[in-house]
Sequence to fold (187 residues):
Amino acid sequence: MTKQLKKRPIEKELKFLADYEIYGVLMVAGLYFATKYILDMDLGEKAFRLNWVSFYPLLVFSVIVLEGSFYWRNKLKLVKREKALSRVQIGRIYSRLRWLNVVLLAAYLPVMVTAIAAKADGGGIAAGALLYLAAIIEQINYFHIRLSYETVNGTLLVVEPLKRLFTGTGKRSQLRKDIDAYLRSVR
Fold:
């Protein structure tokens, strides 16, 4: 079976990526709060109390995905020949954001260990772990190896990109190429 990747005009693809990253963050946050409300069913004084074991990774996930949305929006402006940041400027900004994200991701590990040791709410720990995993996947997808947006006959590929990640045969993400261009320019 020949793999047929879905193709769109570049402007439509970039607009799709920029817009749907924001929609994705809103959807995940909406699902998080809806699930929290349904499971907690607390309308009293604790109705808006956040469970930081699960809320913190939601924040980190949201930050990383919004960074991606702004990146695609800038690429769209470049394609449209509108005022936008250059590849080197983007590389400089995102090379710093990449490390900020790593710090944010690493800061969660003691929180998770403490929550597990304190025998915190299992649902919060499970939700936090899933959101944390999603944040790590987004970090890899944007800042290292492209893991998403591949389809065969309209079906999104999941296993193939992960196989490429673990075998080291994956393609560098576009953002990583821009970071590399910046790093070469400062040497």
